[in-house]
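Hi everyone, sorry if this is the wrong subforum. Our group has a chain we'd like a structural model of before ordering constructs, and none of us has done structure prediction before. Sequence below.
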Amino acid sequence: MPGSAAAVSAGHRGGTRIAYLPVNSTMEKRILGIILSLIGVVGLILAAVRFANGVSGGQSIRMVFVYAILGAIFFFSGIGLIKNTKDRPT
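Answer:
Right subforum, don't worry. Here is the predicted structure as tokens:
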């Protein structure tokens, strides 16, 4: 968002002074996209490892599906954020 700012408090003698720093929302979206993608990859890897170790019983099958579905959701939402974030000249 253009014009948004983050407050950073810096202590000094008389009290707390607040300085406003401009926030680059494009970079924040990309970082969030990378984090979501990494969480998704971890979820997909956990699902694959559980599946490879052998799935037996209803609880184990459900856990594989939960890991796979959540991993896919996080992965594709992260990739979507990275892909759809437009670069702006600074």
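For your construct planning: Helices lie at 25-52, 58-84. The beta strands are 5-12, 15-22.
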